[in-house]
Specification:
Layout (H helix, E strand, L loop, with lengths): L1 H28 L4 H6 L5 H10 L6 H13 L13 H36 L4 H15 L2 H15 L23 H8 L2 H38 L2 H8 L4 H38 L5 H10 L3 H29 L1 H6 L1
Helix pairs in contact: 1-13, 5-6, 5-9, 5-11, 6-9, 7-9, 7-11, 8-9, 9-11, 11-12, 11-13, 12-13
């Protein structure tokens, strides 16, 4: 297993290098002058030239690339133009909110998607199967920003059941930071009013993020269960008199869940990147809304830092997914 992990980490290096090259190219194709953006609107030409020399923008392109790599590898992703703080500090401050939203959405997706896909496979080609397939198609086709606005209009504006935006009621403040998750930290602090408020605020954005993920997990679970149910051992166990529910729960799901687990892992990175629009709509103070404000404000250092961060998350999640897949099916480790 250690050799397999080493191979997967080695294969992730070219992907990360390619991502760094892509970020560097994006940095250079930005239509505005980065030196002028850093200097501010009222900067003089001499001040812009000084900043250009300070950050190496006047050097040859290859020297700029190696300087960029050195900065990234040292953890220096630059300073945000708007907050005047290191971008790493801004991302670190907003990361817990995005992780909380992502984990809740992923939990909902797995808790609903796996049973839904299993039911669809067991009821193959029945009205139940067709309804589940219709839901998965709709879940993948619906635009997240449209669904978010519709839920706001319905649940917050018309029915007044859930708060419109934010992460916590302003009057309640925020719980003492332990994990960065308001739901968990409010429980640790014993503040039930904050706990209820945190749950009410996270329901809509987590649901919007979870629906496409539910559709994806349900589709892959259905496919895996259908394939497993055609195996000889399932026919044998059925003939031996095993109850259908126990057979599916113990034998079929255990041999079908590997593909679904792989998708769950990959969806984690996808949900972080998908949170950009959702966080902006619900005013959720995470990395996604930070990226939106950075794009609108031409804060290119922050934009590139978020891009690089999401890419690194994807690479790490891919390695972890391969490890879990290899643990569930040792043949994977032998093939790679």
């Amino acid at each position: 297993m250690l050799a397999f992990l080493a191979r997967r980490l080695f294969l992730a290096i070219p992907s990360l290098l390619g991502l760094m090259i892509l970020c560097f190219v994006l940095l250079r194709v930005v239509p505005s002058d980065p030196s002028a953006a850093l200097a501010g609107d009222n900067a003089t030409p001499d001040q812009i030239a000084e900043i250009r020399a300070k950050f190496g923008f006047d050097r040859p392109l290859h020297e700029q690339f190696f300087l960029y790599m050195k900065q990234v590898l040292s953890g220096d992703l630059g300073v945000s133009v708007h907050s005047n703080r290191p971008v790493v500090a801004d991302i670190g401050q907003r990361l817990p909110a995005t992780l909380e939203l992502t984990f809740v959405a992923l939990f909902l997706a797995a808790a609903i998607g796996i049973p839904l896909g299993t039911v669809a496979a067991v009821a193959h080609n029945t009205p139940v199967d067709h309804l589940v397939r219709l839901f998965t198609i709709g879940g993948l086709a619906v635009a997240s920003f449209w669904l978010a606005i519709m839920l706001q209009l319905w649940l917050a504006m018309d029915l007044d059941l859930l708060p419109l935006r934010g992460r916590m009621a302003v009057a309640l403040g925020s719980p003492p930071t332990v994990t960065g998750s308001y739901v968990i930290d409010s429980l640790v602090a014993g503040r039930w009013d904050q706990f209820v408020s945190a749950l009410r605020h996270i329901v809509m954005p987590a649901t919007v993020l979870a629906i496409p993920a539910i559709a994806t997990i349900a589709r892959f679970t259905r496919s895996g269960v259908l394939e497993t149910m055609q195996k000889d051992f399932v026919t044998y166990e059925t003939a031996a008199g095993y109850r259908r529910g126990r057979l599916i729960r113990i034998f079929v799901l255990r041999n079908s869940v590997a593909t679904a687990v792989t998708q769950i892992g990959l969806l984690f990175g996808g949900l972080i990147s998908s949170a950009v629009a959702v966080e902006a709509i619900f005013d959720w103070p995470g990395i996604g809304s930070y990226a939106v404000y950075a794009i609108l404000g031409q804060d290119y250092k922050a934009v590139l830092a978020v891009t690089l961060f999401v890419g690194v998350v994807y690479a790490i999640v891919n390695v972890l997914v391969d490890m879990v897949h290899a643990a569930l099916d040792p043949r994977v480790a032998e093939q790679l």
